[in-house]
Structure formats: structure tokens, C-alpha cells
Amino acid sequence: MPMADLSLEKRMGQQVWSKRGGVGNRYQGPSLLTLVQHAKAVLKPLAHIHRSRVLHRGLTPDHVLLFSKGGQEADSGVRAASKPDAIKHDIKLTGFGAAARLTGKGCAIETSPYKCGVGYVPPEAHQAGALTTAPDVYQSGGLCYYMATGLHPPPLADAMPLPDYVPEQWRLIVSLCRAAKPVDRPTLAQLQLHLHGLCQ
Question: What is the 3-state secondary structure (H, E, C) of the chain?
């Protein structure tokens, strides 16, 4: 059975999930290596803004832009299901309208509401108090859900199991990142380390 191609357009929010292989062939989804490659590419700029002491708080597919390596915005997208090393673009994050700056204690006070779909809003958004990087990890889990299915994640209360074609290792990543309690989520560094281990 041929493996489906993952085609990324200019924005992840305009993805085309091609079901190549003809009538009767079951959709297989992107390969684990493809998912890992793309997640690592997204987490790299996110880690950079965290080092700059900024929380994104609006991490959705529409705010992840793909650029070719020369700096020009990518037009043709990428087909990388069978060739994960074929990623020939840089990823830049946009949509900083709800961003917050971390204080010297590594937390921030929420200053504006989240500007994203309900499936990307972390449960702690409805509680007063200091913010850490955990909400961005939660939203990364939403992106991982989207990359595997082509669908936006449901709110945590309405969460359903991921489809059977999603690799078990990827289900675990989504589950950990979208944990209800911030303390139960991995840090961004732990997530990057885990993804690196999946590439070995």
C-alpha cells in the first residue's frame, strides 16, 4: 500500500492532506519521521522566543509560516512522507497578538485573552495567576495533533482518541503536551530531546 504524501502549503493552516494511492487504499497519514521533522522545525523558533523570555500564546497552524531556505516564501510546499530529509524550508512564527513577556522569576501575568481556536486554549487560561511556558507546550500539542490528522484539536473536555493511522509514539507526544495540568506537561527542552530520540 503506498504511503500518503504530506503536502504543506505556504501556511500549515492551508495544508493539503493528499490521499495518494488510488481508490480503495486506506489513508495512512504522514510517517512518524515526517511528523518528527516538522515538529522539530516548529519547536526551534519557539525555543528561541522562550530564550528571549517571551510566551507566544497563539501557536496555531495559521501562525506557522514556511519559507524556502533562500528566504523566499515557499510556493510548492513539501512532500516528505517517504523522504523526511527532504524538508527544504525554514519555519517562522507569527501571530504574537496575545504574547506575554516572562519576568525574572520565569513567569508572566496574563495581559490579553488567547487569540486562537478553543482546541488550542490551555485549561489554565480560565484561571488567574502567573503564566509559564506550559501553555505554549499545550499549543504545541495541538499543532502535533493537527500535523497528524489535518484537523484542529478539540477542546480537552471533548477529546477523542486519535485515528488508528497515527503512530503510537506520536499519540504519546500529543497526550503529554495536552495534559490538563501544566505540571504534567514536558518542558520544551524535554520535548525536543524526546523528538530527537525518535529520529535515531
Answer: CCCCCEECCCEHHHCEECCCCCCCCCCCCCCHHHHHHHHHHHHHHHHHHHHCCEECCCCCHHHEEEEECCCCECCCCCECCCCHHHCCEEEEECCCCCCEECCCCCCEECCCCCCCCHHHCCHHHHCCCEECCHHHHHHHHHHHHHHHHCCCCCCHHHCCCCCCCCCHHHHHHHHHHCCCCHHHCCCHHHHHHHHHHHCC
Instruction: Identify the CA nearest to 53 among candidates 3, 10, 87, 102.
Output: 102
Return the bridge partners of 92, or none: 65
More confident residue, 38 or 86: 38
Q: Is the pLDDT of residue 23 over 70?
A: no
Condensed to tens digits (0 to 9), the pLDDT of residues 147-189 reads 888 888 999 888 888 988 899 999 999 999 999 999 999 999 9
- Residue recorded with cell 519559507: 67
User: What are residue 124's phi and psi, to 5 degrees?
Assistant: -75, -5
Q: What is the pLDDT of residue 160?
A: 84
Q: How many other β-carbons are positioned within 10 Å of the β-carbon of residue 140?
A: 26
CA gap 183, 74 in Å, rounded = 37
Averaged pLDDT score across all residues of the chain: 75
